[in-house]
């Protein structure tokens, strides 16, 4: 808590190349802090922290209205076009400890493209990577963020229909993170009201964790 009437939530964005991680981070912050554009190679090559302004009238806690500040750590993709798994893991681990080591991490957002299938091998590698970063309790502090949802909407899928048609691999992943997921169309600038809805969903996930944070001091090496 940043004060009696204000809360800061700490988020890290994880995912593969061209999934829309940086664009999603910008949507959550309501800014353009992170570089994001189409590229044949991985755009993000280092970790960077973005901070939102004070956001009012988002949630109430213990009968009081709380303002929210959002901090998002953008990270290089895994797999990465130029960096090894070990390089990405060590870079992210160091950044997590540096930025969130004292306050802790509220949620890791695993970014997946809604318009591409989730393959079993890729999914296994991604989960192993997150486990190495966050430790054995990763499931409690991870949510899935679907991007490029404009493509699924164009194909006529509602969120419910999309999940009903999802592969067993994706459904198993969602089950493992206790069905914490959000759909985000990060191909366009979201309006203030849409952003508030997304932040409320994230805060609901945090509330389900009883506002606990993942402590990251152990990551310092």
UniProtKB/TrEMBL annotation:
Alphabetic keyword roster: GTP-binding, Nucleotide-binding
Report any Pfam family annotated for this entry.
Answer: AIG1
Family annotation (Gene3D superfamilies): P-loop containing nucleotide triphosphate hydrolases
Which PROSITE patterns does the record associate with it? G_AIG1
Report whether Nucleotide-binding shows up as a keyword of the record. yes
User: Which residues does the UniProt record annotate as the domain AIG1-type G?
Assistant: 6-221
Q: Name one GO molecular function term.
A: GTP binding
UniProt lists the family membership as follows: Belongs to the TRAFAC class TrmE-Era-EngA-EngB-Septin-like GTPase superfamily. AIG1/Toc34/Toc159-like paraseptin GTPase family. IAN subfamily.
The protein, known as: GTPase IMAP family member GIMD1
The major lineage groups are: Eukaryota, Metazoa, Chordata, Craniata, Vertebrata
């Amino acid at each position: 808590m940043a004060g009696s009437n204000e809360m800061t939530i700490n988020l890290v964005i994880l995912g593969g190349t061209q999934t829309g991680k940086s664009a999603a981070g910008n949507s959550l912050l309501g800014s353009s802090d992170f570089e994001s554009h189409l590229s044949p190679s991985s755009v993000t090559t280092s970790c960077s922290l973005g901070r939102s302004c004070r956001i009012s009238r988002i949630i109430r806690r213990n009968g009081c209205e709380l303002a929210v500040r959002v901090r998002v750590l953008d990270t290089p993709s895994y797999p990465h076009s130029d960096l090894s798994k070990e390089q990405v893991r060590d870079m992210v681990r160091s950044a997590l400890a540096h930025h969130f080591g004292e306050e802790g991490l509220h949620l890791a957002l695993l970014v997946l493209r809604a318009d591409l299938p989730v393959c079993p091998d890729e999914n296994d590698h991604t989960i192993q990577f997150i486990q190495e970063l966050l430790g054995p309790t990763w499931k409690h502090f991870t949510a899935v963020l679907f991007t490029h949802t404009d493509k699924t909407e164009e194909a006529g899928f509602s969120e419910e229909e999309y999940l009903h048609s999802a592969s067993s691999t994706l459904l198993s992943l969602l089950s493992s993170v206790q069905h914490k997921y959000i759909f985000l169309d990060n191909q366009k600038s979201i309006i203030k009201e849409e952003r508030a809805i997304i932040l409320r969903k994230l805060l609901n996930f945090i509330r389900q964790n009883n506002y606990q944070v993942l402590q990251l001091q152990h990551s310092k090496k």
